[in-house]
Amino acid sequence: MPYIKTFDRTQMMFCSWDAFVDEQSIARIIDAFVNSLDLQEFAVKEAATEGRPAYDPKGLYKLYIYGNRKSIRSSRKLAESCQVNIEVKWMLGGVEPDFRTISDFRKNNIESLKKIFHEFNRRISGAVEWGFTAVDGSKFNACNSKDSNFTKNKLDDRIKWLNAHTDEYLRILNDMDEREDLDDEIDKLTRETIENKLKEARERLARYEGYQKIMAETGASQLSLTDADAKLMKNKNGFAVAYNPQTAIDSNTHLIHDFQMTNQVTDHGLLHSTLVDIKKESPDQVIEVVADKGYQKADDMVKCLENGIIPNVILDDGKDGYEIEIEYQENETNLASTKSEELSKAIHAGQIPDAYKDAIESIEVKDVSRLVSDEQSEKETVESIYGSEEEMLARAKEGYFVRDPEKNLVYCPAGEILRQKCTRQNGSIRYANKMACRHCRNRDKCYKGKNKWKEIDFTKDRLEKPCKDWLKAEGKEVVIENRKSNGRFEMKKIVKLFLKPNREKTAQRMCLSEHPFGTIKRAMGAAYFLLKGLKKVEGEFALFCLGYNLERAKNLLGFEKMMELMTAI
User: Fold this and answer.
1) How does DSSP classify residue 521?
2) Rounded distance between C-alpha atoms, residue 387 and residue 521, angstroms
3) Residues 505, 509, 510: CA angle, nearest 5 degrees
4) What does the pLDDT read at residue 480?
């Protein structure tokens, strides 16, 4: 059977460039959208009036939007596309900027990319009906390797290791001085080799101590050398240096309504801040949001309720709702109003607004007793118990976990330092040191749990905790002293409300918030950032979201409707 015949490469053709681009290509939507933009509104930097003429900024915007939709992200690949991709040639009018020009344009106009994303959403908003919102976050790898990221525990471990090796090199050199024939006996290591290793160890030790000093001065919990804003985060594949962008997905259209770029390790406290701009679009309308268990933070949910946002955060098994306490304020209320100010006044006065009747099951005003501590009480208590760091270590080696609140660390019975891992929902601070626990010879005396390391929680009014297994192994009696800092109890009036999430809406969360991340990471090949710094990756993520929304809106509304919306100003 004969093959399909191909064209003759030497045959002459007479046709327009427009004929090469499919009639319903997404390139035509991008071209129409960018051509209709008034770039002065987006603070695009103007070209120099002297010298060689500059490239049209609209053409470079088209290039970046198209490239991110088609998984062509680097400036060098975009420059290559200007030479070989017919749709790109059609959009840019045949110009071929080099990779440096393309890269510099993005760098100089990075802040305008999120504004353009919002402008696209504004144009299609009249043709779609927005529903409730699903908020979720996902880890996107930063341009920073794990080897170039340091935590306080990691630095402690490496400094300890280098000190041990430095002492060993010095011991070997001392033995070489005493025995001249030792050069051939220690694995054929020469004096020059040992001295080079000693010099290298000292240089690394000085570098790590410098990092430690920077972290102590700035109060940073982590230090990333390549991208200073990136953080070490846990994901499904272990740990990676990454960012944690938050997206707000609409329930009706599955479009990305808005996003927030963060470098926060967890999602706690990010619900309200992600929805701020969406709420500004409709200030007198109550909006609803669903989120997973990672957003279970009472203060954040209260902030949502104060600003006209109903938070439907998934509950733990066996719970029917959230019991939340807020400060009582005597106010004149308008329960029928949906304005944020009136809603906030109502709940602080212990009354349920009409808009919250389905969300807040009950609310009451109560008088409770609360501990009020002085600012210096904790420090004074520590000084009265422990005179110095040596005394804290001595107490710890007796079989206790001793907390130093001034440095925010804990000394364990083995003499290691446990640093803050996270803050619990009840306000207590969790301390851990995974590296120290893995190599600890006394691990069986300290911890017999399922995890590979010990985690210990301290409230702000507690300074030490006994290690019961340690004391039991050494035949000592458990003694707990000076648990609480100085303070006094006062009667206080609070509002206690019971927030009940809508289970029908929370059941839809996974179907709403998961697949946009999957599309961006898999279909668009954007599981990592090329740029560095929080401001720049925010602009890069805006391109991801715009590329996703373009294709989603095209499938939802059709090509003709999209072309109509893109040209409407």
Assistant:
1) I
2) 54
3) 145
4) 58
- pTM recorded for the entire structure: 0.87
524-549 burial, b for 16+ CB within 10 Å, e for fewer?
bebeebebbbbebbbbbbbbbbbbbb
The first and second tokens of residue 191, run together, are 């004096």
Tokens (6 digits) for 49:
């009036």
Closest listed residue to residue 301, CA positions, set 347, 338, 370, 257? 347
Pairwise CA distance, residues 473 & 94, whole Å: 79
Query: Helix, strand, or coil here: 510?
Result: helix
Per-residue pLDDT reduced to its tens digit, 344-386:
999 999 999 999 999 999 999 988 877 666 555 545 454 546 6
Residue type, 230: A
Strands 149-151 and 222-224: antiparallel
Q: Is 206 exposed, middle or buried (0-12, 13-18, 19+ CB in 10 A)?
A: exposed
Q: Is beta strand 455-458 parallel, antiparallel or unpaired with respect to 464-466?
A: unpaired
Q: Is the pLDDT of residue 3 over 70?
A: yes
Contact, 90 vs 21, CB < 8 A? yes
Query: What integer pLDDT is reported at residue 387 of this predicted model?
Result: 65
Which pLDDT tens digit goes with each residue over 171-189? 888 888 777 654 454 556 6
For the chain, how many helices (H) and strands (E)?
20, 19
User: Taking a C-beta distance cutoff of 8 angstroms, is the pair 568, 37 a contact?
Assistant: no
